[in-house]
Amino acid sequence: MPSEKKQFDQKITMKAAAEIRKGCIRALAAAGSGHIGGSMSLAEILAVLYTDILNIDPKNPHMEERDWVVLSKGHCGPALYSTLAYKGYFPADELLTLNKGGTNLPSHCDRLKTVGIDISTGSLGQGLSLAAGVALGKRLQHIPGNVYAIVGDGELQEGQNWEALMFIAHRKLTNIVVIVDNNKRQLDGYVDDICREEDIKAKFEAFGFNTLRVDGHDVNALYGAFCAAQNSGRPSAIICDTEKGHGVSLSEIDGFNHYMPVSEEDAEAALSEIDRRLEENYERIGK
Amino acid sequence: MSVLVNNFALDNVEMRQAYCDALIAEAAVNEKLMVIDADVSHSVGTGKFYSAYPDRAVNCGIMEAHAVGMSAGLSATGMVPFFHAFGVFATRRVFDQIFIACAYQNLNVKIIGADPGVTAATNGGTHMPFEDLGVMRLIPGVKIIEPADSSMYGQIVHAMANEYGVCYLRTSRRKTVRIYRDGVKFETGKAIELYDGKDVCLIACGIMVYEAIKARDELLKLGVTARVLDMHTIKPVDRKAIISAAAECGAIVTAENHNALGGLGSAVCEVVTEELPVPVERVGVHESFGEVGTQDYLQKRFKLTAEEIVRKALICIERKGRNI
Asked: Inter-chain contact A126–B101, Cβ cutoff 8 Å?
């Protein structure tokens, strides 16, 4: 939940998104390959959450009253690891161990390995149920704090999500916010080609959610949505329209960008591009 | 002093009633204990818990996958959820949820599967778990308990609530033959010896414990003395008791209300082959799906009987000293 002490500053959050992308690219290049598409589409969502919304303390990662994050699309761990490193949960150099034997940063999120990961994920479709349990556990034990659960639009094809959504709405778990990274693509191609989901916002509304829809790469819009998600008296869902691979031309491609090789040369070009785009965006909003 | 009752007879309480009473008693001293159901609270017998602790009982509806994941989330905040469903839905339907959402991330969820094997009776093949022990045994760190009667539920529920990690309890809901006198000590992972003997050891769990007792009596008439072990904890199995049985009896018959693959028989064979090879025969269901019928009919249909244990015991004794 936004603290009164925090002042939203668009530029700071845009900078955070750029740093999240850069850390992620460094990690993927060190590993040689990885889940770049879905990680890139998450950058602004994670930037706003971790910069402006969450009540967390990187020095006290198990703080009881913290807000929890469940990255149900757990294969995008590299984006979350980069975010955690940016926030100081662990040194940025650790990102270079991604997927190496013995690492604390496996491809898919693991609460037993990585400081700052609240719930292990990676088997798609399960995160919302765990988030619901955490939200109910908090409510029963009168522990403050929200649960932010991030799912992919492709992931919504898993039926367990809809079980969880029914349960969350029926139990009026208002301390949960479901975030859909609506990047329109899944591993094998476009969601609309593989199994069309029709109107996701209408579906969430029909399931009883206070549902918002925003540009998932616009930090202003995201911040506004997260604030509007509070205290609606219903559980909230934010459909974030994103682009898979967004932010670097390496992965902003029409072809397969779910999991890509990333060379050191690719990374060097991408890091410069991210900085250049950030400066361009600063100029654009400065006008 | 024997651990057994003087006369074997049908218990005067249903297994589910004794289980729920134990849950309510444990919840009185453990404020984190919760009951989670998936629309079979009437069948499984947790209904009284809802009256006793309405805030700590959650009926999710017919959504076992979510119920297991939600239980894992509750556990992540320190609660101790006991999730209930029919055995087939509590295990094989939600195998990945138990594996990944619970065990893989070291959470503290208790899984209760009702109506094991032929005790599903007229619910038939769709509801008759012959494979739950097998699938659950594959999950690292999971404990598996199947009691022979209702007498130890207080101790079993207490152990489940206090021993951290995923535990699977496989239990009939109906009245069963009372095996133990009051006050017999339950210890997770420690088999209970019901009778000693030197010619063969009968190792059973659940409803097959009583069949093993009857088989022991029949064998005695033939001049064969049988040790009888209640292996109520299928995982971690009591290796010491199995090794002693192999060393001192030289032949072992296992008996379970389950597929002969993957469950108690497999667990015993693994220990015997690794530690001290002796002949083992397995009484269990062989390459069959469940079907409808009374429990009595189905026990005969699938040869889950004292007669079959006797037959296998005699074969096993005959095999001593050869075929190994």
From this structure: yes
How far is the CA of B233 from the CAs of A59, A281, B33, B75, B293, in angstroms?
42, 63, 22, 23, 28
pTM, rounded to two decimals? 0.97
Interface contact A134-B106, CB threshold 8 A:
no
Tell if the CB–CB gap between A164 and B69 is shorter than 8 Å: yes
Report residue B217 as tokens: 């009596």
| Whether residue B64 lies in the annotated active site | yes
DSSP codes of every residue in A232-259: SSS-EEEEEE--TTTTSTTT--SS--SS
- Cβ neighbours around B95 below 10 Å, total: 16
Closest CA to B211 of B111, B283, B125: B283
Q: What is the pLDDT of residue B322?
A: 75
Whether the Cβ atoms of residue B259 and residue B283 lie closer than 8 Å to each other:
no
Burial class (CB in 10 A: 0-12, 13-18, 19+), B9: exposed
Is residue B50 scored above 90 in pLDDT?
yes
Q: Please, what's the b/e burial string for A189-224 (b: 16 or more CB within 10 A of its CB; e: otherwise)?
A: eebeeeeebeebbebbeebbbbbbbbebbbbebbbe
Q: Helices B264-275 and B239-249: crossing angle, nearest 10°?
A: 70
Residue B324 pLDDT > 90: no
On chain A, the residues whose CB falls within 8 A of the CB of B96 are: 123, 126
Which residues of chain B make contact with A171, given a CB cutoff of 8 A? 58
At B179, the pLDDT band (50, 70, 90 cuts) reads very high
Q: In the A/B pair of chains, how many CB contacts fall below 8 A? A: 99
**DSSP symbol at B131:** S
Answer yes or no: is the ipTM higher than 0.85.
yes
B261: amino acid identity, one letter:
L
Contact A141 B78 (CB under 8 A): yes
Pick from B32, B33, B55, B70 the residue to mutate for testing the A interface (most A CBs within 10 Å): B70
Question: What distance in Å separates the CA atoms of residue B132 and residue B285, rounded to the nearest whole number?
Answer: 13
Residues of chain A contacting residue B79, judged by C-beta atoms under 8 Å apart: 137, 140-141
pLDDT of residue B321: 81
Radius of gyration (Cα) for chain B, nearest Å?
Answer: 19
**Chain-chain contact of A137 with B78 (C-beta, under 8 angstroms):** yes
Contacts of A207 (CB under 8 A, 6+ apart): A162, A165, A166, A169
Is residue B257 helix, strand or coil? strand
Helix, strand and coil content of chain B, in percent to the nearest 5, comes to 45, 20, 40
